[in-house]
Design a protein that fits this description.
Region (Disordered): 128-171
Shape: elongated
Number of strands: 0
Order of helices and strands: HHHHHH
Family: Belongs to the LOB domain-containing protein family.
Structural class: mainly alpha
Radius of gyration: 22 Å
Pfam families: LOB (PF03195)
Strand content: under 5%
Protein name: LOB domain-containing protein
InterPro entries: LOB
Distance between the termini: 31 Å
Largest sheet: none
Number of helices: 6
Length: 171
C-alpha cells in the first residue's frame, strides 16, 4: 500500500486505519507539509478525531486552506484573503452604482428601478450559505488554486534520499 501524503511527510508506516489518508493523498504531500507546519500533525489528528466522520472532509479542507493562507501571508493569513475579497466586492459595488447613475443620466431614472429585476436570478451575497456533503456541485470543489511558492526554499531539496521523497516545511 502506498503511504498517504501525511505518512510520507512524517516518514511513518501508513496503515489501513490511517485517519489522515482520505484527506491527504500521496500526491498532496506539500499541502500536509503546510498543515503540519502551521497546526502540527498531532493537533490535526486530534481535530479530525473529534469531528463527526461526515464532516472530516470539510474540516481537513478548511485546515489546509487556513494553513496555505498563513504560509502565503504570515501576518494576516486567511483573514487577509477575506479582507481583500471584501475590498474587491466594495469597489465593484461602487463601480456598479456609478455605472447605473451614468446610464440613468442618458436613459432616465426608470432604469435604476427596473435594473434589479433582470438580475433576480443572481446569487444573494447576504444570504447564509448552506453546504451539504452530498451536494453534487460542491463534491469536486477544490478551494486551493494552483500557485507557485514565493521562494525556492519551499521546494524539496534535490538529491537522493534513501527513505523517499523529502519535503521541507515552509519557513
Amino acid at each position: 500500500m502506498t503511504p498517504c501524503g501525511a505518512c510520507k511527510y512524517q516518514r511513518r508506516r501508513c496503515g489501513a486505519d490511517c485517519l489522515l489518508a482520505p484527506h491527504f493523498p500521496a500526491e498532496s504531500i506539500q499541502r500536509f507539509a503546510y498543515v503540519h507546519h502551521v497546526f502540527g500533525g498531532g493537533n490535526v489528528s486530534n481535530i479530525l478525531k473529534s469531528t463527526k466522520p461526515e464532516l472530516r472532509k470539510w474540516v481537513a479542507r478548511a485546515l489546509t486552506y487556513q494553513a496555505e493562507a498563513r504560509v502565503r501571508d504570515p501576518v494576516h493569513g486567511c483573514v487577509g484573503v477575506i479582507w481583500e475579497q471584501e475590498e474587491s466586492l466594495r469597489i465593484l459595488k461602487e463601480k456598479l452604482e456609478k455605472a447605473k447613475r451614468e446610464v440613468a443620466q442618458y436613459v432616465g431614472p426608470e432604469v435604476e428601478q427596473c435594473s434589479s429585476d433582470p438580475h433576480a436570478n443572481l446569487v444573494d451575497l447576504e444570504a447564509p450559505l448552506s453546504v451539504t456533503d452530498d451536494d453534487p456541485d460542491l463534491s469536486s470543489w477544490d478551494p486551493f488554486p494552483a500557485w507557485e511558492p514565493p521562494s525556492s526554499r519551499l521546494q524539496p531539496p534535490q538529491g537522493d534520499d534513501a527513505k523517499g521523497e523529502t519535503v521541507s516545511p515552509p519557513s
